[in-house]
Amino acid sequence: MTPRLIAAVVVVAASQVLAQTAVGAPVDPQRAERCAVRVAIALTGKSPSAAVLSASNPQLEIPALLESDAFIERFSRFINSTFNDVPGASSIDDPAYHLTRHLLVNHQPWKDLFIGPYDVALVSGAVQVRDDPAGLGFYRSKAWLERYSGNEEAGVKLQAAYRILNNTTGLKLTAAVQTPGADFSVTGRQSASCRGCHFDGWFSLDRVASVLTKKVKTGDTITFTPPTAGPQQLLGQTISDDKELMTALVNSPSFDFRVCRLAFQFLYGRNELSCEGPLFDRCVDAFRLEGTIQAALKTVATDPGYCQ
User: Fold this and answer.
1) What are the backbone dihedrals phi and psi of residue 202, each rounded to the nearest 5 degrees, phi first?
2) Does 225 lie in the same domain as 166?
3) Are both 269 and 290 inside the same structural domain?
4) Which of 25, 87, 209, 283 could form an S-S bond across to 299 if both were Cys, CB 3.0 to 4.6 Å?
5) Any domain includes 128
6) pLDDT tens by residue, the chain, 308 residues
7) Does 208 lie in the same domain as 272?
8) Report field, pTM of the whole predicted structure over 0.85
């Protein structure tokens, strides 16, 4: 064998080793089997296929698993359950599920879930995702608007404001316990015990809600009218309506953080640990570069530590 050929063989062998160790490839068959079971169940909720189970490095099968309908269905349900406290009364009441499926199937940017030109509507008895230049992800879908319209006496959509902040940034607040005689009007919400969540701080539920449409209920009919409070200073910007609000949120670092935290919660069933900071940063970088939720999930799932 000539020196040049020997060198070529060494380079190829070295590149194969690097490709395996880069994703934590198990060396022995038992570790490979455990890894196959882990990635398959985490991503698809099902036992590994013969191809994944027989792979010497199951983590190399992750891109294919992210294309599978089993993953798309599982992740869409995960997002729907994360973005809502309880399932909707009917399928149309869960537009986050339907639009998530649509984006995953069509390899669309994750931000389109929040600001994409879509509408999720009931057409001839079936839920459909439709192109709509006036759409705003699923947030202008009639079913979502009505579900989170709330019961504030002046039609201020505090529930919708909280859901938007929770979905995009992961904000979590605990609702105050209602007591007899308590004043939950806008005046009451300005009291010292309430204004911290409603008027102060970056999330300021009342100020966020003031740029959303207002609920008007006439009998059993619910309609929505344009906001009347005028522009608000939110997120370091002047925000006038729901589109400007959503655009500012998806362009914020908090949105990237939320995406990678969702990836950890889906794959590990928990938030990231402090020792996983470098991996979390790589997840954020991958998401910013590619713009898809699959990029974030792939970064976390192909890390060498995932199959340890």
Assistant:
1) -70, -25
2) yes
3) yes
4) 283
5) no
6) 444 433 333 333 333 433 444 444 445 889 999 999 999 999 999 999 999 999 999 999 999 999 999 999 999 999 999 999 999 999 999 999 999 999 999 999 999 999 999 999 999 999 999 999 999 999 999 999 999 999 998 999 999 999 999 999 999 987 765 555 566 677 778 788 788 788 887 889 999 999 999 999 999 899 999 999 999 999 999 999 999 999 999 999 999 999 999 999 999 999 999 999 999 999 999 999 999 999 999 999 999 999 98
7) no
8) yes
Instruction: State the total domains in the chain.
Output: 3
Domain boundaries, position 211: 150-174+183-241
What's the start-to-end Cα distance of the chain, in Å?
A: 39
65, 80, 98 - which closes a domain: 65
| Residue 192, in any domain of the structure | yes
Do residue 188 and residue 226 come from a single domain?
yes
Question: Which of residues 43, 65, 87 is at a domain's end?
Answer: 65
Whether 154 and 218 share a structural domain: yes
227 belongs to a structural domain: yes
Same domain flag for 154 and 189: yes
Q: Which two tokens stand for residue 230?
A: 């005028």
**Do the domain assignments include residue 101?**
no
